[in-house]
Structure formats: structure tokens, C-alpha cells
Write a structure and sequence with these properties.
heterodimer, A: 104 residues, B: mainly beta, 4-stranded antiparallel beta sheet, 0% helix
Chain lengths: 104, 116
């Protein structure tokens, strides 16, 4: 099975900061990667699909990149609504352990 | 637009069977999509349980495969999850989701507690 890891596990940042989260797969998954945002008590929300494609309705400050085994999610200017936990996922399969973005 | 709603008992006894239903509204479960179940123990991350196509073809997480069964009822536009021999570690919020490669639509989730 392919293992998904994320770093960091927790990230403290301020409004306006540029934030980058890394996801790694234990073997190549091409571009078959998605990113989700989850807030407490809510279902996850799809942000990015196929590594770099922005889901409809998601603000353009979110972007994804990478292929193969290493991927990144970038928030260009962190907004108050962005404090949440972010998960990567190999398509139709396993999730990474999550990265919590909290207020510095 | 397509919406998903999970339902089922909120409390299951240890060694019993957890049974949940996900009702699809605003679209057909027979569309060209897979449908998935995901769970999240309190305070922990997301765990993919498995997925199913309307034909009945299913894929399960190997860590749960011996205890999981998924099914589809096209007449009711529903998918179902059965997890047997449950224990406290199966206590979680259970979500259903539509699969388009990524999971683009999710239900609100339902909390299931395993306790006597």
C-alpha cells in the first residue's frame, strides 16, 4: 500500500502569511492527489484535485503543485477563514495525517 | 445539486454490527461515479474505509476488509455500510462521499459510538 505523509503536523501562522504544506507519497502517484480543508465539526471540503487544479468556488489564494511523490499546497496570503486542518489524499484512497494551521 | 445524508444508530454495542445508510438526493446513484465511506475517530485524522460502484463492485481498505461490506440500493438511491465485530476503536464520525477521483461531495457525517 502507498503511505501518505504530511509536514509539518502543525503550523502556526499569522493573517497575511504565505503558507506551504508538503505531502509525500511512498511511491509515485503521478498527479493523482487531492487536498482538503476541514474545520471542527464539519465535513472535509475539496480544495485541489489532480495535484494542481482548483475546485470550483475555492479562492485563488489556494494553489497546489507537484507530481510523483512530492506535492505542496500553498496559501498565498492566509485569511482568518483559513485556520483549519488540511489533508492530502491519494486519489480514491488513503489520506495523509493532516496539517493543522493555527493562529500564531 | 447532489447532496448526501448519512443515517443510522448512534450507539452500537461491542462485538455488534455497525450499519449505516447514505441517501443520495439531487442525482442518481447509478451515475458514472463511485461512492465512498470515510471515518474519523474523535480528534484524529481521516480514514478511507472503501468505495462502491452502482454495479456492486467494491474496494475496501485492507485494514478493514475482513469486517466491511458495502452495498447499493438503486431503487432507494442509497448506499450502505456494514462493519461487524466492532470495538471502541471503531467509534468515529462516518462520512459518505461522491468520488470523482477526488471526493467532491460529502455528507455531513454521523457519529457512531461503540459502547455497552
Amino acid at each position: 500500500d502507498i503511505q501518505m505523509t504530511q509536514s509539518p503536523s502543525t503550523l502556526s501562522a499569522s493573517v497575511g502569511d504565505r503558507v506551504t504544506i508538503t505531502c509525500r507519497a511512498s511511491q509515485s502517484i503521478s498527479s493523482w492527489l487531492a487536498w482538503y480543508q476541514q474545520k471542527p465539526g464539519k465535513a472535509p471540503k475539496l480544495l485541489i484535485y489532480k495535484a494542481s487544479n482548483l475546485q470550483s468556488g475555492v479562492p485563488s489564494r489556494f494553489s497546489g503543485s507537484g507530481s510523483g511523490t512530492e506535492f505542496t499546497l500553498t496559501i498565498s496570503s492566509l485569511q482568518p477563514d483559513d485556520f483549519a486542518t488540511y489533508y492530502c489524499q491519494q486519489y480514491n484512497s488513503y489520506f495523509g495525517p493532516g496539517t493543522k494551521v493555527d493562529i500564531k | 445539486q447532489v447532496q448526501l445524508q448519512e443515517s443510522g444508530p448512534g450507539l452500537v454495542k461491542p462485538s455488534g454490527t455497525l450499519s449505516l445508510t447514505c441517501t443520495v438526493s439531487g442525482g442518481s446513484i447509478s451515475s458514472n461515479n463511485w461512492w465512498s465511506w470515510v471515518r474519523q475517530p474523535p480528534g484524529k485524522g481521516l480514514e478511507w474505509i472503501g468505495d462502491i460502484y452502482h454495479s456492486g463492485s467494491a474496494n475496501y481498505n485492507p485494514s478493514l476488509k475482513s469486517r466491511v461490506t458495502m452495498s447499493v440500493d438503486k431503487s432507494k438511491n442509497q448506499l450502505s455500510l456494514n462493519l461487524n465485530s466492532v470495538n471502541a476503536a471503531d467509534t468515529a464520525v462516518y462520512y459518505c462521499a461522491r468520488v470523482v477521483g477526488a471526493f467532491d461531495i460529502w455528507g455531513q457525517g454521523t457519529m457512531v459510538t461503540v459502547s455497552s
